[in-house]
């Protein structure tokens, strides 16, 4: 209890000003507004009503580096030399045990085992196995907490991604970033609480699309939906004033609209009207804060070199990693990156080499950049996809080429900072890399652990909708305490 009390009172002057719309970037705007208007948000977004956090958090912010398509753990982090020794042999029935396959390989006459074409080695004091596809990540393994025993029920992309992002395989639930926004609120009223960044991989650039419902608010107020920052001259659509409209005219227009909306709210009592008012005001403040956040011209050369040359190209993974750091530096609560292209059903060796090159340097740079700025200790970084890949080849296996199908029964993710153990690996798979043999971690377990680090008891954090109390972890999930410091 004493630790929780310290958390609430340990706010410095900068945090206080940001919470009340008086951050340096918003001083001019706030002088034209009621600086305490943010307190007039709808009751369902009130921190006092939700009574969060439940206990002192280890993390204040999350950066989720979602690798869409399902990265092959067998090419990256889960070293299985037996697969190389048995290359071409059929997957034993005793290992498969009749498990479900996708329609893409269920009709194959055989399931030839295939090990990785890439070399593995052990790195750091933790002696963690990493392939030569990830040389930058290999250098920072002592900062990482690996989970090698992740598993899920979903075997196809759409339900699997939706499951990770919302806790349900069916569309319509709030995304995890929306849950964090609803429960914990904003740390900076001049930027969205929940932001989204997309990049497309070079390994398989025309793979499955992503849908905006993945960062949607579901049945929560639309105030909590993710805001996508795009590459190009207009990072947030419809944010700029129309030509010929001055800043003062925009302010006057918003004031008149707010008066009309408030009359409507008084008459009809619709909470979405208050949400609309808050969104208009946020957009007004973002006209100042977003250009400043997106402009990387003030980044020193050594930081550009740290992230790699691609970080100067808007829309690349490296550029989004740098932007993620700039966002959490400004206390954005939840930053969601999606990197597409990890679905290697064929030509895997060529494609995954490009995919890994896309993300390796940027990921490592982001983690070390956060550390050198003192942000890693209270920022949780998560890296991983929706499932793993099979240990057998999809399609024809040759000496130099193969593919891998979806495999939900075991795969690898890693985390860093935010209260997780550094230089630590949790869980094990069998020698075939097909089944978990020690310490399984379900998707809901990961979500429960993530919320625990943010100071939330996942069993108590609910929202009543259509007569039922919903939560991110649905009716299951447990905190994996062995991952925590």
From TrEMBL:
Gene3D superfamilies: Alkaline Phosphatase, subunit A. It comes from the Bacteria. InterPro entries: Alkaline_phosphatase_core_sf, DUF1501, TAT_signal. This is DUF1501 domain-containing protein. It comes from Gilvirhabdus luticola.
């Amino acid at each position: 209890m004493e630790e929780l009390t310290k958390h609430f009172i340990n706010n410095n002057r900068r945090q206080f000003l940001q919470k009340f719309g008086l951050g340096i970037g918003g001083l001019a705007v706030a002088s034209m507004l009621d600086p305490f208007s943010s307190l007039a948000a709808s009751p369902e977004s009130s921190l006092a009503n939700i009574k969060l956090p439940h206990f002192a958090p280890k993390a204040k912010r999350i950066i989720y580096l979602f690798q869409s398509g399902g990265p092959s753990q067998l090419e990256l982090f889960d070293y299985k030399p037996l697969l190389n020794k048995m290359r071409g042999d059929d997957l034993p029935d005793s290992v498969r045990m009749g498990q479900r396959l996708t329609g893409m390989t269920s009709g194959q006459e055989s399931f030839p085992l295939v090990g990785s074409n890439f070399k593995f080695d052990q790195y750091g004091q933790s002696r963690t196995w990493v392939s030569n596809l990830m040389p930058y990540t290999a250098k920072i393994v002592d900062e990482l907490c690996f989970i090698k025993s992740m598993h899920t029920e979903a075997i196809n992309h759409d339900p699997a991604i939706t499951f990770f992002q919302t806790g349900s395989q069916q569309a319509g639930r709030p995304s995890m970033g929306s849950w964090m926004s609803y429960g914990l609120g904003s740390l900076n009223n001049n930027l969205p609480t929940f932001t989204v960044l997309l990049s497309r991989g070079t390994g398989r650039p025309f793979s499955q699309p992503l849908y905006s419902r993945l960062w949607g608010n579901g049945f929560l107020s639309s105030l909590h939906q993710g805001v996508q920052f795009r590459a190009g001259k207009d990072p947030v659509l419809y944010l700029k004033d129309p030509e010929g409209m001055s800043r003062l005219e925009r302010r006057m227009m918003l004031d008149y609209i707010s008066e009309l909306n408030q009359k409507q709210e008084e008459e009809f009592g619709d909470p979405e009207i208050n949400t609309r008012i808050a969104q208009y005001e946020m957009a007004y403040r973002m006209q100042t804060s977003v250009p400043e956040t997106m402009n990387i011209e003030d980044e020193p050369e050594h930081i550009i070199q740290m992230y790699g040359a691609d970080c100067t190209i808007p829309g690349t993974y490296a550029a989004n990693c740098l932007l993620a750091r700039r966002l959490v530096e400004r206390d954005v609560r939840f930053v969601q990156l999606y990197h597409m292209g990890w679905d290697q059903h064929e030509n895997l060796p060529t494609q995954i080499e490009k995919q890994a090159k896309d993300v390796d340097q940027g990921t490592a740079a982001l983690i070390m950049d956060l550390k050198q700025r003192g942000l890693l200790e209270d920022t949780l970084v998560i890296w991983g996809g929706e499932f793993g890949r099979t240990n057998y080849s999809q399609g024809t296996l040759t000496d130099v080429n193969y593919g891998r199908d979806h495999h939900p029964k075991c795969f690898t993710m890693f985390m860093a900072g935010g209260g997780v153990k550094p230089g630590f690996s949790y869980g094990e798979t069998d020698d075939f890399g097909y089944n978990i043999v020690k310490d399984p971690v379900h998707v809901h377990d990961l979500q429960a652990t993530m919320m625990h680090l943010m100071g939330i008891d996942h069993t108590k954090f609910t929202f009543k909708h259509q007569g039922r109390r919903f939560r991110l972890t649905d009716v299951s999930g447990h905190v994996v305490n062995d991952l925590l410091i």
